[in-house]
Amino acid sequence: MNGIVIREIQKQDNAQIAAVIREVFVSDNYPKTGTAFADSQLDFMFEAYDKPKAMYYVVEENGKIIGGGGVSQLENSTENICELQKMYFLRQARGKGIGFQMIQKCLEKAAEFGFEKCYLETLPEMLTAQHLYKKAGFEYLCAPMGNTGHTTCPVWMIKNL
After folding, report:
1. Total structural domains in the chain?
2. Which domain holds residue 135?
3. Predicted TM-score of the model (pTM)
4. pLDDT along the chain (161 residues), means of 10
5. Mapping DSSP to helix (H, G, I), strand (E, B) and coil, where does residue 104 land?
6. In which region does residue 149 sit, left (phi positive, over 0), alpha (psi from -120 to 50) or beta (all else)?
7. Cα→Cα distances 150→27, 32, 75, Å
8. Cα–Cα distance, 123 to 137 (Å, whole number)
9. Tell me, what CATH number does 14's domain have?
């Protein structure tokens, strides 16, 4: 992973990470509504994660952001559960082990924050991502948790921390 760094998001990263996430949705032809693509926070990721018990990381290669992922309290849940959120990588970042590293980094931070479980939602066609989630210890759920607004993401998974 020469020249690749996983680091905490900074305010000046907002435009780049928003462009990365949108590019993934467009290039991979994922649904735009009911997904992270339509989230109002997409253009303000630094601010969205600038709160207690939340962290977003970006993957940088030679000064260019090529992916990211984060954790935050599961929306509309009273349980001590976080959500693995907005984990997307450009094609050039895939197949290099970066995704698994990002999951591990996020789970370590979630445990540090004191969360008991980590939840995620994904698309059925994101099979490679699901494989990584299973490798990291996530298990499938039969129904969603919280209320994330991601109505087009019918695959739900959870992991005990």
Report:
1. 1
2. 4-160
3. 0.94
4. 88 97 92 82 95 97 96 91 96 93 97 97 93 97 86 91 97
5. helix
6. left
7. 20, 10, 11
8. 18
9. 3.40.630.30
